[in-house]
Structures are given as structure tokens and as C-alpha cells.
Amino acid sequence: MSQPSTHRRTGTPTAAAPAPQWQLWSAAWTRHVILLTGRTDLHVHVATGAGGGAPECFYPDLRRIEIDARYIADDPTITDPRKAGHKKIVPTGYGLLVHGAAHAAHSQWENPPGTAPILAEVAAMLEESRAEGRQRGRRRTDRRWLRHMINAVVHPGTASADDPWHAGVLAALLLARVDARILTSQDVRTVRAAVTAVLGRPRLRRLREVWKQAHTVDDTDAATMIDLADRWCRILGIDPNQQQHPPDADPGQFPGRLDQALTDFLAASHGLTHADYQAQLTRHRHSPPGNWPHTDPTTDQQAAARLLAERIHRARTHNPEPGTRPSPLPPGRLRTRHAIAAEAQIAAGQVPTAQPWQHRTQTPPPKPTLHLAVLVDLSGSMYPYAEELSSAAWIFAHAARRRHAVTTTIGFGDHTTLLVPPNTRPGQVLHMQAGGGTSTFGEAVKLADKLLDLRHGRALRLLAVVSDGLLDDIPSGQNLITTLHWAGCAVLWLHPAGLQSHTFRHTTTITVADPVDAVARIADAAVAALEHA
To answer: Per its UniProt record, what Pfam families does this chain match (predicted)?
Structure first.
């Protein structure tokens, strides 16, 4: 995640790699930045990976603005940066240039020696809207381009917990930009509602007073900016003398309404629906590695998918119950209104569609849709299970599409990998490769929750985990499992036999003899859940 403090850095950056293909852009924007800033001593460097991990970064000591070319285009020949109209073709990239120019022109203060990191972080957040507001004051038309780059500098995951600190982060980065006249109140309507829900109106009102005062601070007044940062922290209940560093989100908590509101904002800024933006983000973050092999499904795998589909169908239609259904013919109970409608249709020379009679019959009971998430441990000790569960992922996906269920398979290790997204029927079997640790278990659970809505009761929900349970962060993993348990999502944990393991509370824990046994247990649990729903 790109923090605001990374957009302006003192000191010397890591030497940027030569970028001859982007040299024309660097030269053109170096000439153009004079117009944006009024300074003649600045240099703009455009290259893939420039910016020190941020989309854009200004280095005051070097009088240098770096811009990551990935936020401009894949191909530098997309347009000619020497022409005035090029900015309309690459609005996000040009917006980053304007943002860097705003810092170069107006962020003329530095943190005093000994400033606590939390105060430096808050001051940097307040500086974002202050510098942009000053830039807009000098060049009103720059507002258009600053709006385009918001989705690049405010990243998903910025507010991953519903606590005062993260609510304050959204307030400083988005709500303050409304008073700087970069964004509009309508742009941040959902964000404002979420922040208000977490902080309350009185506390948000006090924060607004802080950022509005920051907008009036002189470009070189470091002391006032740090004083405002101290005041901001104390409004949020944080004593900078006791807590020197910005608080991290609790990894054992699921993202809440702040994350939802931020996602809605970013989706709108990209011109996408919430679902489409979330799918795009998931593909970007959790796509399988390109070197994982694919194979065509075997006849045994196809037969297993058909068999599981039939089992799910039988489970959904298990134990018929008395019910009624309409019919055009007797016997049964005559429904007067429908009989009159049928007579009228006949009299008008139409084929009657009304069904006057109501039969008593045995009907299958209504069943909720099964939401099944399978999490596979891809650490080195779980290597024997990766192959069989890769096959199972294909089988579950095809069986689910046929019989009213939604499944997904996610691998976790050093990276969280979405093997099979929900509501898809992969043409080939993708083979997971084990090796590494278990550091991303929490991320995998949160991804499963986001994809299948495991914490809400509109569906029958089951999370199946195949792992020895020896996670890098067991307490956080336990908190996530407990949250799912109390939300009504069943958790099935499958321990491989012969391995040292950890047993989590609020799970149904089973020791399995081999990978085939693990797959069978998951299928049995899914069918049993439907039968007893």
C-alpha cells in the first residue's frame, strides 16, 4: 500500500534503472513541469518501477519527481508527450505529474528532528489535500487531473479495520480533499457515512477543523503542521508520546464498512461496478503463477464431477414435504379468480394461460444455496495434498454449476492464490505447487469471505481447510475462525495423518489418512450440510 508519506521523501532514492524507452516522456515532462510549478530547477524521471514503490514521489533534496510508468501506459508510444493533447490520453499519469508538481511547489517544510513517526504520518496525510488545494488555487484547471490520479495514490486496503485510526486515514485522504475542492461531497458520500459511523459526528467535526486549518498553513510552516498532527492524534484517542508509530490493523479482524466504502469509491473512480472492480482487483492480486501446469480433465475426473452433482441434487430434494401447485385441470381446489381469467381468455380467442385448479402434492423442501470455500495449505509439509486437491477444485466447480451451489478453491502459503473463482467452470485442471510457509492464511480466509459472503446468513456456508494448522500467526487465525463460527459458517478442518498439527477451536476437526480421503470428507460434509439444511 502506498502511504502518503512515500509521495515526498528526503534523502537520496535508490538509483533508478535507465529507461531509454521512456526518455522522451522524462524530457517532455521536465520541460512541462516548469509551467506547473514555476520552478526551473526540477527534473522529472519516468520509468517502470520509479517512485520508490509509490506511483509518484517527489525528492526535495534532489529536486526530482519520479513517476512509475505503469500508471501511464504499457507502451510509451501510446501518445506524444510533447503535444498538449497527450494528457487526455493518459489522465492518470498526467494527474500524478500534477500531484508531484503540487508537492514540489508547496511542500516546502520538513519534519523537525525527533518527530515521532505517527506525527510525521498524520502531517503527511494532511499535506496531501493542503498541497493539492494550493495547486488548484494557482491553476484551477489542474483539479481535473488531480481527480484522475486519486485512484492511484489511495489504495485498496487503506482502511482494513473499522477503528478510529483507519477512519481518520480515510477522512484525511478523501474527506479533506472535498474542502480542498478537489473532490465533491457526492464523490465521498459513502465514505463519509462509514467514517461517521466509526468516529461519530462530534469527533469527525473536530477532525474537519484540523484539516481546514491545515489548508491555511504556510508552505514552510513545519511547526504548525506537526502541532496539527498532534491534535489530530489526540482527537482519535492516541497519545503520540506513548504510541510513537501508526497502529496496524488487527490481522484477526475482517474488513468492515470502511473497506466497503473505500471499495465503492475506487470502483466509481474507475467507472466500474463494485462487483467488477472487486473481480479486477482479485485477479490482479491473487491470480495463479504462470508456471503452474494445466492439464485436460480425465474421464475419472469428469465422472467424479457428475457423481457429486447428482449427490448434491439428491441432497437438495431430500425428504419431500406437502405442498401445492397450480394446474389447468381438476382434481383439486378451484381458484375462482383464475377460473374467471381463464374464461375471459377463452372468450377473447386466446389460448388460456390461467390455471384455475390447485393440487396438493409432495414437493422438495426449499434449500438454501451452498457456499463452499476450500482452503489448501501450500507449505512444504503439505506437498502430497496439492495434486489431489487441484483435481478436487475442478470437480467441485463443475459439480456446483450443475446443482445450485457456489464453490471456490484458494491456496495459501507465501502467497494467496485463487485457484478457481466462484461461478466458473475451468476448462482445464490447474495444478497447485506446494512449497513455502503459511503466512497468508488470514488473507485467504478474508478472500473466501469476500467471494462467498461467509459471515452473512443468506446461504448455507461451509469453509473447509486442509492444513496441519501450524500457521505463522495462530492467534489471528483463531480469531477469524471464531468470527465465522459465531456468524453461522461451519468450519471443517482436515489434519493430515502423521504430521504434527494444531487444533483450532470452533472447528470440526478430522484427521484424514491421505489426500483422497480429504477430498471425500469435504464432499460428504457438503452433501450432509444440504441434507440437514
So the answer is: VWA_CoxE (PF05762)
**197, pLDDT greater than 70:** yes
Q: Average of pLDDT values for 435-455?
A: 93
Longest dimension (CA), the chain: 93
| Backbone phi, psi, residue 72, to 5° | -100, -65
Q: What is the pLDDT of residue 5?
A: 53
Answer for the pair 255, 454: CB distance below 8 angstroms, yes or no.
Answer: no
- Residue 527 contacts residue 519 (beta carbons within 8 Å): no
Query: Residue 363: what are its φ and ψ, rounded to 5°?
Result: -120, 150
pTM of the model: 0.85
On the question of pLDDT at 455 being above 90, the answer is: yes
Closest listed residue to residue 109, CA positions, set 10, 212, 209, 245: 10
C-alpha dist (Å) from residue 427 to 287, 298, 389, 394: 16, 12, 16, 9
Average pLDDT rounded to a whole number, residues 48-60? 91
Sheet holding 56-59, edge to edge: 43-47, 64-68, 56-59
> Which pLDDT belongs to residue 1?
40
Rounded to an integer, what distance in angstroms lies between the CA atom of residue 296 and that of residue 306?
16
For cell 522524462, name the residue: 26
Query: Would you mind telling me the total number of residues written for the chain in this entry?
Result: 533
Q: What is the pLDDT of residues 229-259, one digit of tens each?
A: 999 999 999 999 999 999 999 999 999 999 9
Question: Rounded CA gap, 65 and 56, in Å?
Answer: 7
Which three three-digit cell numbers place residue 144?
A: 481535473
- Give helix then strand counts, H and E, for the chain: 19, 14
**Would you state the pLDDT for residue 530?**
87
What type of residue is 411? G
Q: Is 401 helix (H, G, I), strand (E, B) or coil?
A: helix
Q: Which long-range contacts (CB under 8 A, 24 or more apart) does 478-484 make?
A: 478/252, 478/504, 478/505, 479/250, 479/252, 479/253, 480/252, 480/253, 480/254, 480/442, 480/445, 480/446, 481/445, 481/505, 481/506, 481/507, 482/506, 483/253, 483/254, 483/455, 484/445, 484/449, 484/454, 484/455
